[in-house]
């Protein structure tokens, strides 16, 4: 009996944490998926990850204390457009956002079909990844559209919907920003160590959503210089922009603790969301 109650409580806990999984609209014309989505471990071997995602979804995480939710965040894990680092760049982010009273929607955007890789490493000119981004950003736009259309149901202010992403998820975040229309436009954005090399060079959009970025100069993918350029592009337009360019911290830190100042990036981001008037 005690075992049964423990299982029941565990089930209820996870039901509350991730109440719903929504399948987004999609069209896989031009993509050659072979086989189902694959659940695996990430590159450090300890966190849950997914590959071969062909059906885009968002998983809903609402704060347990539902009193005054109004801010929402779409969360886009990274993984080089090949994987979805669901734990430290998705689930853990959603839990932390919920603790701040922010509703979170973790996006599993479509990835490059797994059979195209074998043991091949990521290398320029990243043609598969650039092509895949043209599908991934549509998933991001549809995620925002879904949350906005269901704002009353989720107790969300339709004018307080942000999108954030890590590495390739940051590329999805930026492409969403550039390509959005009024119905799927983010109200604020937070690309974290965004992998901008796969994003087409574009001018900041005229609506200029407030921009928050965090990255490190120690990142072996050398993403910090492009983050600085992106920051300057926003500043020159007179748009709200904040950049935290730390030194220490390897690529893919996400919600993992490093023992360095970069560990403060999440709280910095939430303080910034509050400062721009987007926090509940």
Plain-language structure description:
- The chain is an alpha/beta fold and 280 residues long.
- It has one domain: Rossmann fold.
- The protein is built from 7 helices and 11 strands.
- It has helices at residues 2-17, 87-99, 127-149, 151-154, 168-179, 224-236, 265-275; strands spanning 20-23, 38-41, 48-51, 57-61, 72-76, 83-84, 103-108, 161-166, 188-192, 211-216, 241-246.
- An 8-stranded mixed beta sheet has the order 1-4-7-5-8-9-10-11, with helices on both faces. The protein has a 3-stranded antiparallel beta sheet with strand order 2-3-6.
- Helix 6 links the parallel strand 10 and strand 11 (241-246).
- Helix 3 crosses helix 5 (168-179).
- The longest helix has 23 residues, at 127-149.
- Mean pLDDT is 91; it is low at 1-17.
CATH fold-level name? Rossmann fold
Report the major sheet.
8 strands, mixed
CATH level-two architecture: 3-Layer(aba) Sandwich
* Rg, alpha carbons: 18 Å
**SSE string, helix = H, strand = E?**
HEEEEEEHEHHEHEEHEH
Which overall shape is indicated by the principal axes computed on the Cα atoms?
globular
Q: What do we call the CATH homologous superfamily?
A: Alpha/Beta hydrolase fold, catalytic domain
Q: Looking across the biggest beta sheet, what order are the strands in?
A: 1-4-7-5-8-9-10-11
Q: Which residues sit in consecutive blocks of at least 5 with pLDDT less than 50?
A: 1-17
Number of helices: 7
**CATH class identity:** Alpha Beta
Q: How large is the share of residues in beta strands?
A: 15-25%
How far apart are the first and last residues' alpha carbons, in Å? Answer: 42 Å
Estimate the helix proportion, in percent: 25-40%
Instruction: Count the domains.
Output: 1
């Amino acid at each position: 009996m005690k075992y049964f109650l423990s299982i029941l409580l565990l089930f209820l806990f996870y039901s509350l944490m991730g109440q719903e999984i929504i399948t987004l609209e999609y069209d896989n014309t031009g993509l050659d998926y072979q086989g189902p989505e694959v659940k695996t471990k990430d590159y450090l071997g300890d966190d849950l990850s997914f590959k071969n995602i062909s059906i885009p979804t968002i998983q809903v995480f609402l704060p347990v204390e539902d009193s005054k939710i109004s801010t929402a965040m779409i969360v886009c894990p990274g993984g080089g457009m090949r994987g979805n680092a669901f734990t430290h760049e998705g689930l853990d982010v959603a839990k932390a956002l919920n603790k701040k009273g922010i509703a979170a929607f973790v996006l599993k955007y479509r990835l490059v079909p797994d059979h195209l890789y074998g043991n091949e490493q990521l290398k320029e000119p990243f043609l598969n990844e650039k092509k895949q981004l043209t599908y991934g950003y549509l998933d991001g736009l549809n995620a925002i559209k879904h949350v906005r259309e269901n704002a009353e149901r989720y107790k969300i202010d339709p004018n307080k919907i942000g999108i954030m992403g890590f590495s390739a998820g940051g590329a999805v975040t930026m492409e969403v920003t550039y390509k959005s229309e009024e119905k799927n436009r983010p109200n604020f954005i937070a690309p974290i160590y965004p992998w901008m090399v796969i994003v087409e060079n574009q001018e900041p959009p005229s609506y200029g959503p407030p921009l928050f970025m965090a990255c490190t100069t120690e990142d072996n993918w050398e993403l910090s210089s492009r983050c600085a350029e992106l920051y300057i592009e926003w500043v020159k337009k007179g748009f709200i922009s904040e950049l935290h360019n730390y030194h220490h911290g390897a690529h893919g830190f996400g919600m993992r603790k490093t023992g360095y100042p970069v560990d403060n990036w999440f709280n910095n981001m939430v303080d910034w969301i509050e400062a721009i008037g987007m926090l509940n």
